[in-house]
Amino acid sequence: MSVIEVQNLCRYFGETKAVDNISFNVEKGEVLGFLGPNGAGKSTTMKVITGFISPTSGTVRILGHDIEQDSIEAKKKVGYLAENAPLYGEMKVGEFLAFVADVRGYEGAHKFQAVERVYDLTGIGSVAKQTIDTLSKGFKRRVGLSQALIHDPDILILDEPTDGLDPNQKYEVRTLINKMARDKCIILSTHILEEVDEVCNRVAIIANGKLVADETPAKLKARSRAAGALSVSFEGNAPENVLTELAKISGVARVEEISKKKSNAVYLLYAQNNAVILPAVTEELTKRQWPYASVGLEQGYLDEVFRTLTNTGRN
What we know:
Number of helices: 11
Structural class: alpha/beta
Strand order of the largest sheet: 6-7-8-3-9-10
Shape: elongated
Strand content: 25-35%
Low-confidence stretches: none
């Protein structure tokens, strides 16, 4: 039995099919990055999984509990951070989290311990006595994450969890997700592809309501046109005529300039007939005394694969 089982899920809004017959399972220890362009059906799928809206057809099971037929037991297992998580702005942070703990069935010392635990996890203890409306967007997001964690759920459904956070706060939340992933099942929706690399061990991509990919990040990157090419980067301005000269190296079929910023010039070298070109390239760079920063095989670009998979049928 999988932790989350989604089978043949469809969801209509009037005549519009927002989710189109998708199926996938998620296991304990997995962090599934759920990606797609705006309007692809990501948030709708997550709302169905959490029981906020009903499916038009298909089934969702949470640890064996059908989200429709056994919704109370299923929802006990889930912590949900919505994209625009509703908060009671007139309440103080501590009051709000105590209220959420009440709703989750905590009483007395257990309620106090639950609130203190999420203070430590999300770092919001310093604003416990502040009214939610007075908080920054980043702190409001962290309060939303705290309410999702208050009952220490087996499953976390996080819709844009780092939206509005500064770089330090993003790092802290990603570190927390990595820590919790050891014994939880997590679905994470995000538009930040670097976040996928940092916290996800699996990626599902949805476009026009359909599931178009479900693989590890490494396998998705391997679909990239650049996967396997040799990357050469320079700090500062690249040497004059570098593109032409790199193309002359034995075994190089073609060279592609992918960045020409003053601080970082990057070139991809594609080999002829899968030839090994690294030794010849490094020898040429050394001989010419070009100030290169790095040379290495390119794994591929997740953003390129994402665009390829989700731009079908678009202008």
